[in-house]
Task: structure prediction
Amino acid sequence: MASNGPGGKNLVVVQLSGGNDYLNTIVPYQDGLYYDYRPNMGLQGESVISVDDRIGFNSHMAPIKRMYDRGMVAVFMGIGYPEPNRSHFRSMDIWHTAEPFTSSSEGWLGKVTRALDPEGKNPVTAVNFGRGLPRALAYPGVSVASVGALESYGLYTGLAGAQNTDALLDTVSRIYQPMSEDGIPSLRILQTGRGALDGADLLRQAPSHHKSSVEYPEANPIAQSLKGVAQVTSAHLGTRIFYTAHGSFDTHTNELVNHTLLWDQLSEAIDCFWSDMEEQGAANDTVMWIFSEFGRRVADNGTGTDHGSGGCAFLIGPSVKGGLYGEYPNLDPSAQLDGDVRFNTDYRDVYATILESFLELDSEPILNSRFGQLDLAAV
Amino acid sequence: MAQLLRRAGFGATRDQIDGYLKQGYEATVQELLNPVHREHEDQDLMDRYFVASVEARTANHADPQWAWRLATNPNPLEEKIALFWHGLMAVGGVKLDHGMEMLAEIDLFRRFGLGRFEDLLLEISRNPGMMYWLDNQNSHIGAPNENYGRELLELFSMGIDEQGEGAYSEDDVKAAARAFTGWASAVTPPPFFLGPFPMEFRFDSNDHDDSEKTFLGQTGNWDGDDIVRIICEQRATARFVAMRLYDFFVSDTPNEKEIERLADVFEENDGEIRTVLSAIFNSDHFKSEEVRYRKMKSPSDLVFGTTRLVDRFDVPELDSGMLANNTMFMGQHLLNPPSVEGWHEGEEWVDSGALIERINFASSEISRVDGRGVQRMLTRVRNSGNELDGAEFVEACLDAMGAIELSPRTRSILVEHADGYGIPWEADASDSTDRTIEMFQLIVSTPDYQYC
Result:
């Protein structure tokens, strides 16, 4: 069994919220059926950067294609889970809990955090960029810092007017001291408060440890989140799991404009992030997992696409063996699943591989079962 | 009294407490338990402000409406009991992403939530959203879907123990599922172009299994309402409801003796929830130190309790719609519970991210000097005396905020904070408002304030 050794990588998750349109991300540009189903939304010519004589990247993913050419991008074609559910909520839950059949409130990365730090000693083992905890990171007793902006993270940072916040913080800090007393307030909540305050102090200082020549674009939210990831990485706080989200990919209408913009932003952000990681010497210790809750319908609806099932996902990093994984789904009507792309790679196989090959954790207790291992680690 | 109002509602201002004190404890319990349910008089106003929420399409469109009721309904127990049943008979946006139906279900809880449990179970079994949520749509004669039958027994009425065992068998689940075949829902035309499709309950006698069934030892040609009736005769049901009410209204630590007593009350009073709650609130146990501040506030308790204290909303402006987002940031996404089980109450509410959200929300809200409630609190502190030492000042603030109590250790640290200025607090001093607001902020930041 693998253990949490010093060789385990840091995992950066990028969630594409809303359902990323697979067919316009990895485009089957030689397949006539694609253009039949996408009379209004089919990408062709310069809109596609070919990978081989069948498929290509959306041209707004050029930086990712360059990384692909360097062999550091694994593309999962037709990834999904059994018995697709086209509800955003339910589908996202399935990805977050690694439980496609039963409803669970325990996130797979919450369990990972517990496995990496069983006694909860480090309040920043997992850091989420965004407000509110994604189900993926929820697990009883596991503390996760949820950060909007690092510089302003912590208590009282949003208070308006002339506030004596230093004195307030000082007093609150004295109150949240774990005392081994039985009663109210409980030891548990005092410890939680201590962890929250300590975590906030650590994270707020992280930007000052980050020296980089990379300029992340200001008006690009996912770039700012990934900059936060780089800052926390540079501060060496022992953070292993980073969570970010980008969207909304729910492109029922105006897809050509919106989908393009989202990938422009994400590609630029990813480009900055990996340049930065290389500059920091941290690239080999980092892997990035990009997923969405589902792909979209094969046929367009005139100006957009509706909820589908099978989709695509990416694992990125120099320690990843790049390439195409799985079969590109057949668009023939007989091969479709009620008008959707049929999945052929179970997402839990990728989870299991991330856990075993990159985080050096035993996947079985986290996924409640043993799944196939893909050959994803670069040699 | 303050504890009663925290548990049966969302806390109370000092003025409200004084009013209730005049009327007496038992009369207050009676008043809370017998709310006059009015059709929502300010619905038009809400529709004008929350335009996207009119005939709400999704859960996220609907929750500003519920948030407004939670923040303003003058009958707080109506909202509290709706929260209770919403957590127990959870229907979530994760599957039923239909705002109109979800709000209709919340209203069902307001209307039936304090009455006989049997009536409530029947209503919920005829609730189209629930039928859809638990797959009764797909339950047909000869091919019953067991989801509703199972959850009705396991999650809504009889429950299971720690070993996962219930006081019913798999055969009982199957019998219940057969009895509920033909109970389904249908969609009706939307109220306006591109609007949501309202749902209605539909019973299809041709798809109903009318043959003989044995359920919990009783044999007959049972229909769904017979199943509900038989369920409500069970001791396990009385115990389950008593336990859940205790957990929600009394303490995070179960008390076996008290739960048994409440189960007796349930049985002796035809399962009337109002009577069980009356037995809870009027008991010595409820008033004892044993349960005082022994319940972790849920995000709703924290958000709407603080909002009611501040009292700054006249109309359902955008800010009030944001309140539901705040409970979500703290881990309680209203109308979208994490699973059919609802939320886990108690200390699980507070992880480090949620605690930061709680403190930041409450300290920012309580400093809203435009709030009528904040103005009243400031006046009260000012009227407590012209010159107060640290301990007196902290006490005046706690009292003005609705008779809040703190542990001795927390209180002494706050007194040290107040004394730290080296001068007593003076009502006439130019910084008196700032210092008072600062103490309010500290009080809502304490771990003690996370309990109710």
